[in-house]
Known about the structure:
The chain folds into two domains: 5-64, no CATH class; 84-160, DnaA, N-terminal domain (GMP Synthetase, Chain A, domain 3, 2-Layer Sandwich). The protein has helices at residues 5-13, 40-53, 58-64, 71-82, 84-100, 103-106, 126-148, and strands spanning 109-115, 118-123, 155-160. It is rod-shaped. It is mostly helical and 161 residues long. The protein has a three-stranded mixed sheet. The chain contains seven helices and three strands; from the N terminus they run H-H-H-H-H-H-E-E-H-E. 53% of the residues lie in helices and 12% in strands.
Amino acid sequence: MKKSPLLRARRLRFHPASPLAFRFDPVENFRVPPPKRKSAVVRARSRVLTQWRGVDYGPLEMARATPARSVGDLLPALLKDLRLDTRRAEAEVVKVWNDLLDPAITAHAQPANLYRGTLFVNVDNSAWLNEIVRYRRKEILERLQHSFGPSVVQKISFRIG
């Protein structure tokens, strides 16, 4: 009886001597950290589990266990990952806009968004857009950079909207 090529390929692929064969031995080639002192109850429990399982998974369980960390250690990294300080500065620009600039400008131009150092400002109409872009852009940028620093607001982009 002739075997189909599919069965032959499947048999060769998973043959134990094949280089493609996958063997999983969780204890092999595993570095174990130095053991910590355990109480007698914990040692007895570990010994019973090892005898029952037939394999000692203690080193693997120790390696997978993540030590508890305090909130004080985690919070600065979390705030940095969420970039809350940058978002707070962006919201602050929108809040302070009316106080920093001339009321004639703020009546016709309002900040919409601050993205990667560029402040996007919506202007009422093209006449005010032309006025602000030609004559007031530098003044507005200097005031914002003086109040928030040059890293927060690097450019201003005006648009009708």
